[in-house]
Specification:
The radius of gyration is 25 Å and the shape is globular. The strands form two sheets. Strands 1, 2, 3, 4, 5, 6, 7 and 14 form an eight-stranded mixed β-sheet that branches. Strands 8-9-10-11-12-13 form a six-stranded mixed β-sheet, covered by helices on one side. The protein contains 18 helices and 14 strands. β10, α16 and β11 form a beta-alpha-beta unit. By secondary structure, the protein is of the alpha/beta class. The protein folds into two domains: 2-217 and 508-531; 223-306 and 338-498, Carbon-nitrogen hydrolase (Nitrilase/N-carbamoyl-D-aminoacid amidohydrolase, 4-Layer Sandwich), CATH 3.60.110.
Length: 532
C-alpha cells in the first residue's frame, strides 16, 4: 500500500480508471467516493516534499490523471470532429487548476481550511465551466449518478452541484483516513472504526433521504399523450448530405401517421428535422412547414414540436447581432438552430438554441477569435457562430406548455430551470446524437436528462434523430425508450406539472456560494504569500 501511494504515476492511473468506471453509462457510480482519493494523495506527496517537487511537477501528475479520465470517458467526441483533441486537452488542464489552488492555500492555512477551499475552488470551476464561451460541463461531478435517479432525489433542492459537494466531502474524509493510517501507527482501532463509520454515515444519509423522497413522491395526475418520431437518418450520409428535406419529412410523417389518434396532443420531431433553411419572416411559405400545416388539418387537436434550420435577414436600418454574417449583397444574416411549435390556425412559435457547442455552433470569445470562424467545424449543414436568444422561452400549447430544450442544452440545469420559471409544464428535448456513432456519448446524453427531470420535477419527452428517444417521469426514471439506430415511433403519456421546486427558484446557489468563498480563500492566500 505504501509503495502504491508513493508512486504518483500508479496513483494517476488508478484515479483515472476509478473515475471512468464510476461514470455513466456504467453502473458503478459509488466508486466515485474513492475515485478522487488518488488526486489528494498525489497532492499530499508534493506537499510533504516541497523542495524536491515543485508545482510544475504536481501539475504534470494531475494532468496525466485528468487527461486519461477525459479520454476514456469522452473519446467518442473524436468521431464527430478530430478537433475535439483541443477540448479534451483543455478540459483536463482546467480540472487541475482547483487542485493547484488548494495546494497553494494548504501552504498558508490549516489542512481543514484547505480542504474546505478545495471544495469551493472546484465548485467555482464547475460554475464557470457552465457559463463561459468554452463551456464543456459534460463531466460535472454530480452527473455521475445520472443512471441512479433513486439516490439523488434531493437534487430538487441542490441541483447537480449538491452532488459535487457530496462527492468531494466523502473523498476528503477517505483520503485523510488513508494518509493517517499509512503515515503513522497512531490511528487506534477504535478511532479507525469511528472515522470509517463517519464516512459511511456521510454516504448513507443522502441516499436514505433520497429513497424516502423517491418512495413517497406523488407525480401529477394530469397527462398528455405524445408521439415521438425517431427517423434514424444518418447525419453524415443522409440528413445533411443526401436526402432532400421534403423526402425526409415525408418519411417522418409516414411513421407518425401509424400511431397518431384522437388522443394524441403533441407530435415531436428531432433537432433540425427540417434541414432546408427557412426564412423566419416567411416561415409559412417554407415547403416543409406547409407540409406540416397541411398534415395538422387532419388532426384538429394535434400540435407539432420540431427542430428546423432557420435564418433572419436584417433590414438596412436594423442593428445586426454579433453573430450576424455579412453577405456578398451587403446584407447581414443570422442563422439559427431552431425549435418551432405549430398549432392549427395559430402563429408559429419560435425558439433559438442558445447553449451552443463551442467550435461547432459558436466561435468562443468572438471579439478575439472571430477571424477563425471560417475554420469552425461543419456539423449540421452550416459552420460558424449561430444566432441565439437572450433567454429561454417556452412554447405554449393549448393543453400544456413545453420547454424546448435543444440537444446540448440538456446538460445545463440552471438554464433548463428558467423554462420552468416561465411556465413550462414538461420538457421536450430534441436532439441528434448520431454524430458520435454507437458509443457512450449518446447514452450519457440520455442519462443526463434524468437529472433535469429531478431538479425541476418535470416529465421529459425526448426525441432523437439517431440515438435514443425516451419518456422520463418526474422522478427521473426512464419508463420507455427506443433502440439505437432504428427508425421507430415512441408513443406514450407524460405528466404535466406546475409545481415549482426549490432548485427551480434558487438555481445554482451552491456553486455561487462556492465562487464567493473561493474568491475569499484565494485572496487571503495571495495576501499571505505576499507577506511571506
Amino acid at each position: 500500500m505504501q509503495k502504491i501511494i508513493q508512486n504518483k504515476y500508479i496513483l494517476a492511473f488508478i484515479g483515472a480508471l476509478l473515475l471512468y468506471i464510476s461514470w455513466p453509462p456504467m453502473s458503478f457510480p459509488f466508486l466515485i467516493f474513492i475515485a478522487l482519493v488518488p488526486v489528494l494523495l498525489i497532492e499530499d506527496s508534493f506537499y510533504q516534499q516541497p523542495r524536491k517537487y515543485g508545482s510544475a511537477k504536481l501539475l504534470g501528475n494531475l494532468y496525466i490523471l485528468f487527461l486519461i479520465w477525459n479520454i476514456l470517458t469522452t473519446w467518442w467526441v473524436f468521431n464527430a470532429a478530430k478537433e475535439a483533441v483541443f477540448a479534451i486537452t483543455l478540459n483536463s488542464l482546467f480540472m487541475c487548476i482547483p487542485v493547484l489552488l488548494f495546494h497553494k492555500t494548504r501552504k498558508k492555512f490549516s489542512l481543514t481550511i484547505a480542504y474546505i477551499s478545495l471544495v469551493c475552488y472546484w465548485l467555482a470551476f464547475e460554475h464557470l465551466h457552465l457559463r463561459w464561451d468554452i463551456s464543456w460541463p459534460w463531466l460535472t461531478l454530480g452527473n455521475v449518478f445520472a443512471k441512479w435517479p433513486s439516490v439523488i432525489q434531493w437534487y430538487e433542492y441542490t441541483g447537480v452541484m449538491g452532488g459535487t459537494v457530496w462527492i468531494w466531502v466523502v473523498n476528503i474524509l477517505v483520503a485523510k483516513l488513508v494518509l493517517d493510517v499509512t503515515k503513522s501507527d497512531k490511528v487506534e482501532t477504535q478511532n479507525y472504526f469511528k472515522r470509517s463509520a463517519t464516512i459511511d454515515i456521510v454516504i448513507l444519509i443522502p441516499i436514505i433521504v433520497s429513497l424516502i423522497i423517491y418512495k413517497n413522491y406523488n407525480q401529477s395526475d394530469k397527462q398528455i399523450e405524445v408521439v415521438i418520431v425517431q427517423p434514424n437518418l444518418d447525419p453524415y450520409t443522409e440528413k445533411f448530405n443526401g436526402l432532400p428535406a421534403d423526402e425526409q419529412l415525408s418519411r417522418m410523417l409516414s411513421l407518425a401517421e401509424k400511431s397518431i389518434d384522437s388522443n394524441t396532443k403533441v407530435l415531436m420531431f428531432p433537432e433540425t428535422a427540417i434541414t432546408s433553411f427557412a426564412d423566419e419572416a416567411l416561415l409559412d411559405m417554407n415547403e416543409e412547414v406547409k407540409m406540416l400545416q397541411q398534415f395538422l388539418q387532419k388532426y384538429p387537436n394535434l400540435e407539432v414540436l420540431t427542430g428546423i434550420s432557420t435564418y433572419k435577414i436584417y433590414n438596412p436600418n436594423e442593428e445586426p447581432s454579433t453573430t450576424a454574417r455579412l453577405q456578398p449583397n451587403n446584407v447581414y444574416v443570422d442563422y439559427y438552430n431552431t425549435a418551432i411549435y405549430i398549432t392549427n390556425n395559430k402563429p408559429i412559435q419560435i425558439y433559438h438554441k442558445s447553449k451552443l457547442v463551442p467550435g461547432v455552433e459558436k466561435m468562443p470569445f468572438p471579439v478575439l477569435l472571430k477571424f477563425l470562424e471560417k475554420y469552425a467545424i461543419d456539423n449540421g449543414g452550416i459552420s460558424g457562430s449561430l444566432g441565439v436568444d437572450d433567454e429561454p422561452s417556452i412554447l405554449k400549447g393549448t393543453v400544456a406548455n413545453a420547454a424546448p430544450v435543444i440537444c446540448y442544452e440538456s446538460i445545463y440545469g440552471d438554464y433548463v430551470r428558467q423554462y420552468i420559471q416561465k411556465g413550462a409544464d414538461y420538457i421536450g428535448i430534441i436532439t441528434n446524437d448520431g454524430w458520435w456513432g454507437n458509443t457512450d456519448g449518446y447514452k450519457q446524453h440520455l442519462d443526463y436528462g434524468t437529472i433535469r427531470a429531478i431538479e425541476t420535477r418535470r416529465s421529459i419527452a425526448r426525441c432523437a434523430n439517431t440515438g435514443i428517444s425516451a419518456l422520463i417521469d418526474e422522478k427521473g426514471d426512464i419508463y420507455d425508450q427506443t433502440e439505437w439506430w432504428k427508425p421507430c415511433i415512441l408513443k406514450g403519456s407524460i405528466t404535466i406539472n406546475n409545481k415549482i421546486t426549490f432548485y427551480t427558484i434558487a438555481g445554482d446557489y451552491i456553486s455561487i456560494l462556492g465562487v464567493l468563498i473561493a474568491f475569499v480563500f484565494l485572496s487571503l492566500t495571495l495576501i499571505k504569500k505576499a507577506k511571506g
